[in-house]
Request: fold
Amino acid sequence: MMRVRRSVTTAATTPLRSVRSNRRFSSSSSSSSSASDGGAKAAEAQESIFAKSWKIPAASGFTLIAFLQFYHLNNPTEEERKHYPAPAIRRLPGDRTAFEETMATQRQLQSLKLFPYRAASRLWGEVHDKELPMSLRAPLYKAWTYVFGCNLDEMRYPLETYTNLGEFFSRPLKDGARVFDQNPNHIVSPVDGTVASIGVVDASSPEVPTLEQIKGARYRLDEFLGSVPSFFSSDKQKPTDINKKMYHCVLYLAPGDYHRIHAPIDWQVAERRHFPGNLFPVNKIAARLIPSLFIENERVALLGEWKYGFFSLTAVGATNVGSIALANEPDFRTNTKEQDPLVGKCLTKTYEGRSADATRGDEMAQFKLGSTVVLVFEAPDNFEFTIKPGDKLILGKSIGQVP
Reply:
């Protein structure tokens, strides 16, 4: 019996050991498989990290390159300033001034021109010509007034009557809001604005007279107006021209100023010249940086004669101020897409008879926001300005006189 029991016991335990052994093998196989899967996933994750990690050093590299390019662009070498000045600097007569040496180089100017100033200004024009809901007009215009210091007491119509920003910016004044000096020997301010520059046109090089952009920076009169006035041609000078000089005055209009331009004297306007151009800003920073800024920018010049000879008034556009309108040409437009290929050209119109003549105080032109008006005129050599740079001007007040 004992032997039988041993036999039974042996027979009974053998399958159990086998099962346990199989379980251990199965568990070992499962663990091995799981470890293998985990390793594959870890490898895939690591590979994914390495695959994406190139973006970080690449972005850092591009950022560094951009920074270095920006640094070199803003810090040209002395050699670059000497040998590669902006084209307008190279065209100036005589030696360059110390200040002109510090202005934008050819490469810097090319970089500035990459920004689509004309298109951006047209887009802004479309925005401020959109009709505003009646409920938004007064709050929006009052906010603009608060920021830029407009004088709403002088405007002719109530705020709600200006359907869009464009109408508000070029709003007319009440009758009698400005009184014009009527002395025929006085030149009055054609705008509300600030004096940027005044002086005598530099005729040390008679063939290439120059104007002052800011102290130490010049630009050519012939390029600004399209030609040199006959005053500088000795074969066309009259005996009475001997005791005369050519003067200039630059007036800046801020966004809060009255934006219409009036005749500063009684004069016969013979010609309009339109120069499609860029629309750089015309603030002090731009005037110090960009050579011949007023030649680069879009402008409209009215040329004619007054009692002492040549007289011109030029409205110069700026960023977001590319639209210049003329009172005697309702259909005239500037900064249109069709004019883009004509940048740098001169489009001339000759007025027939006395159709464009103006009397002191007559409205002549307007533009949006603010920009610059440049007067270039002939006067006796005893003419004297009664203003100085930095003065705030009121339309109609005297800016100079012949004693």
Remarks:
- Confidence is low (pLDDT under 50) at residues 1-32, 67-72.
- The two ends are 153 Å apart (CA to CA).
- Residues 165-401 form one domain.
